Amino acid sequence: MAKPRFGLALGGGGARGFAHIGVLKRLEEEGYKPEFVTGASMGSLVGAVYTRTGSADATWEILDGMVSSEAFGKLGLHLINVNKRGGTSFWHQVSLALHDRIVINLAQTKKGLVSLERIEAAVKVAITEDIWSNDGMQLGIVATDLYNGEDVYFTEGSLAQAVMASIAIPGFLPPVEIDGRVLVDGGVSQQIPIRMAREMGADFVFGVDVGQDVEPVTELDNAMAIMSQSENIRSCHYRDMLNREADVLLDMEMPGVHWSAYDQRAEFVRIGKESFNKLQVTFEQAWYQREHPLMGRIKNLF
User: Is the pLDDT of residue 101 over 70?
Assistant: First the structure.
């Protein structure tokens, strides 16, 4: 019987996606190499760099350098986390209220709060070549068609453009137009691109989920807060439904960590390693059963 084809599906989660690097490091150490690497949102960026380098350490060096670059700093992601901005003085609260009003006004007149030129400059710090396959690995990236909601798969063409489309967080980063289609974050339709890995030919799919679960909200005293929490609930339920299609799912626990916390990226790598360690036995058993179905059934009997 032919060896099953291993697919690795890397989900979106902003800075939390650095945990993917920790998982990749542990897979390398245990001798598991995916034939298919699919990515949505931040997972597309990690997957693209890993496919090119074939090394978790090299992926860390490149993406750490990207986040440290001047181009990335100009994106202003450090200004996004409004959950824990601190400061209790009257004038501090007034300044935050004014800042939020400015952001709301910009959102009503622009497609995104950051220009495509700045996004492209940051992405191209890490994506310097159009490498979709390398050393037995094939890369796939998913984005979402904003008009009809369809999944849009990329396995060739401009890699930087595909990544830009897949990371285009609605309302913050502007949509990307490719071949007449208006595209946004791949995580809108496939938070973890398990289906894409399967459609590319994977027999065994390991999904890595670094997204946030629904967290309790103490203040639901305005329409924006209510709509935001309702959308979070719906999104999480849909993600959980799709996640059942993975052969093995690694669902990391990082409660309260905002997607813009890039200053914690080294810690996320460590969390990725530890999370894989906790799931390693389950992963290896599932892989063995897929690789040796008859022996796997016999082992289960005893």
Answer: no
Is 185 one of the annotated active-site residues of the chain? yes
100 is catalytic: no
Distances (CA, A) of 30 to 33, 45, 134, 177, 276: 9, 23, 20, 40, 11
The three-class DSSP label of residue 58 is helix
Catalytic residue among 41, 44, 166, 260: 41
Could you tell me whether strands 181-184 and 137-145 are parallel, antiparallel, or unpaired per DSSP bridges?
A: antiparallel
d(Cα 182, Cα 236) in Å, to the nearest integer? 24
pLDDT tens by residue, 10-31: 999 889 999 999 999 999 999 9
Report how far residue 115's alpha carbon sits from residue 118's, in angstroms, rounded to the nearest whole number: 5
Both tokens of residue 218? 């103490």
CA distance 225 to 270: 32
pTM listed for this prediction: 0.84
Residue in 44, 185, 260, 275 annotated catalytic: 185
Under DSSP, the state recorded for 155 is S
Which is more confidently placed, 296 or 15? Answer: 15
Give the Cα separation of 188 and 12 in Å (integer).
9
Contacts of 79 (CB under 8 A, 6+ apart): none
